[in-house]
Amino acid sequence: MRHELITDAALVSNYLKGDESALSVLIHRHQQKIYSFIYSKVYDRDITEDIFQDTFIKVIRTLKLGKYNEEGKFLPWVMRIAHNLIIDHFRKNSRMPKFDNSGEFSIFSVLSDSSLDAEKTIIKEQIECDLRRLIDELPDDQKDVLMMRMYQDMSFKEISDKTGVSINTALGRMRYALINLRKVIDQKNIILTN
Q1: Which of 22, 8, 81, 12 minimizes the C-alpha distance to 51?
Q2: What is the structure's pLDDT at 92?
Q3: Could you confirm whether domain 2-108 is CATH 3.40.50.1950?
Q4: Per-residue b/e over 58-92, b at no fewer than 16 CB within 10 Å?
Q5: Residue 107 clears pLDDT 60, i.e. is over it
Q6: What pTM value is reported for the model?
Q7: Alpha-carbon gap, residue 123 to 59, rounded angstroms
Q8: If we measure between CA atoms, which residue out of 40, 67, 42, 38 comes closest to residue 55?
Q9: What is the domain partition of the chain in residue ranges?
Q10: Angle, helices 74-92/8-16, rounded to nearest 10 degrees
Q11: Taking 60 as the threshold, does the pLDDT of residue 1 lie above it?
């Protein structure tokens, strides 16, 4: 019962002063919420367990290196670490979760996380806005194919049928759209990461 009275900040401070048990109290206090968050993204107990452990390995390393900036936000900080490790997991396994096709596409719908702070939300909105502007600069035929493929999740066969061009032409337009996007991003020195 006494553990609940000690704040996360005090526990972090005690851990940094050498009290190893303070970390186990922190882990025990937040493990259900963090574990559930990870599981809700990966739907696999083994992977969840691995990411959960990797999250706390990273927490311990960051704390020991003195790189943790205490602002009374221990749990959101740990959740962000877990969130980044989930993204790394999907990237490593080349399978980002599918985004839904209801309404307007958001490149960040796959990365949504209620614990993101206002600053990150603003950054994401800015990136999304920049990306839309870049896509608008593409020639119409390339823009149409890119929008159908990426935002409406249409196959190249479906795109071919809808636009009345061959599958190879649709593929070529998609290829040129991506090449042109990269060129503009490089020329304008735009950074599309947060």
Answers
A1: 81
A2: 80
A3: no
A4: ebeeeeeeeeeeeeeebebbbbbbbbebbbebeee
A5: no
A6: 0.48
A7: 24
A8: 38
A9: 2-108, 118-187
A10: 80
A11: no
- In whole angstroms, give the CA distance from residue 99 to residue 106: 8
Q: What is the identity of the amino acid at 67?
A: K
**Interatomic CA distance for residues 143 and 138, integer angstroms:** 6
Residue 93 to residues 19, 87, 90, Cα–Cα distance (Å):
37, 10, 5
Q: Which residue has the tokens 């493990």?
A: 31
Res 51: pLDDT: 93
Mean pLDDT, residues 150-166: 88
Structure tokens at 130: 């920049």
Q: pLDDT band for 99, please (50, 70, 90 cuts).
A: very low
CA 84 to CA 77: how far, in whole Å?
Answer: 11
Rounded to an integer, the average pLDDT of 72-94 is 85
CATH classification of 118-187, choosing from 1.10.10.10, 3.30.2350.10, 4.10.320.10, 3.90.1280.10? Answer: 1.10.10.10
Asked if 143 and 174 count as a contact pair (C-beta separation under 8 A), the reply is: no
Q: Are the CB atoms for 146 and 174 separated by under 8 Å?
A: yes
pLDDT, tens digit, 9 for 90 and up, residues 124-133: 677 777 778 8
